[in-house]
C-alpha cells in the first residue's frame, strides 16, 4: 500500500531532479483531480471526470460485484456507484462524502467512484511523475495489478535554489480505465 510519505532531498536527488526536468521540459503538465480514499491521497486525470456529486440514495443490485455498491439516480440517469478501495488495498474508513462521476465514452451507463473528499484540481509537470516503469521499489497491490499510471510527487513547502522541495507527499495516480475494467471483469465478489 502506498502511504503518505515524507522525505528529505539529498545531493543525488537534486542531480536526478535537475536531469529529469531537462529531459521532460517539453512535455505538458498532467492535470488531475486529487481526492482521499481512506487515509490515502489519490488522483485521476481531470479529463476522466464529468462531475462531483454528493451521494444520494443508493440501491444495491443483486449479484453485482462486491465493489459495486449499487446504483443511484443522477439527473434522470442511472449511475453505478463503485468503491475502489477493494482493489487498492486501502482501508475504507466510511467517510466517503463525494462521488466522482466519470466521463467515459464507451460506457453503457454513468459510473461514479466513491471517494472521501475531493482535495483539489491541480497539475504536475513530468519531473514530478514516476510512471509504472519507475515504480519497481514500491510494493502495493494496485501497482502489482497494474491499476495505477504512476505516483505523483506533491511538493510541500519551499524549494531550494535548484527547485527541489524539502518535503514530498506521494499521490497514487490511478488508471481509471483499468480499475473499472477490473471491477467489471474479475473483481472481488464476482
TrEMBL record:
One of its GO terms (cellular component) is cytosol. It comes from the Archaea. Residues 29-185 form the CheW-like domain. Residues 1-28 are annotated as: Disordered. Residues 1-15 have a biased composition (Low complexity). Pfam families: CheW. GO terms for biological process: chemotaxis; signal transduction. PANTHER family: CHEMOTAXIS PROTEIN CHEW, CHEMOTAXIS SENSOR HISTIDINE KINASE-RELATED. This is Chemotaxis protein CheW. The gene is cheW4.
Amino acid at each position: 500500500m502506498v502511504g503518505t510519505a515524507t522525505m528529505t532531498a539529498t545531493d543525488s536527488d537534486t542531480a536526478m531532479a535537475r536531469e529529469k526536468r531537462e529531459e521532460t521540459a517539453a512535455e505538458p503538465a498532467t492535470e488531475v483531480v486529487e481526492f482521499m480514499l481512506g487515509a490515502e491521497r489519490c488522483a485521476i486525470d481531470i479529463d476522466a471526470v464529468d462531475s462531483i456529486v454528493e451521494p444520494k440514495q443508493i440501491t444495491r443490485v443483486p449479484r453485482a460485484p462486491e465493489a459495486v455498491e449499487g446504483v443511484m439516480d443522477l439527473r434522470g440517469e442511472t449511475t453505478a456507484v463503485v468503491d475502489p478501495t477493494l482493489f487498492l488495498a486501502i482501508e475504507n474508513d466510511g467517510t466517503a462524502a463525494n462521488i466522482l462521476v466519470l466521463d467515459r465514452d464507451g460506457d453503457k451507463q454513468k459510473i461514479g467512484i466513491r471517494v472521501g473528499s475531493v482535495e483539489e484540481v491541480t497539475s504536475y509537470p513530468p519531473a514530478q511523475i514516476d510512471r509504472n516503469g519507475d515504480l519497481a521499489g514500491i510494493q502495493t497491490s494496485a501497482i502489482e495489478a497494474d491499476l495505477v499510471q504512476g505516483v505523483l510527487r506533491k511538493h510541500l513547502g519551499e524549494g531550494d535554489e535548484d527547485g527541489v522541495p524539502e518535503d514530498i507527499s506521494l499521490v497514487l495516480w490511478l488508471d481509471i480505465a483499468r480499475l473499472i475494467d477490473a471491477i467489471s471483469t474479475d473483481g472481488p465478489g464476482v
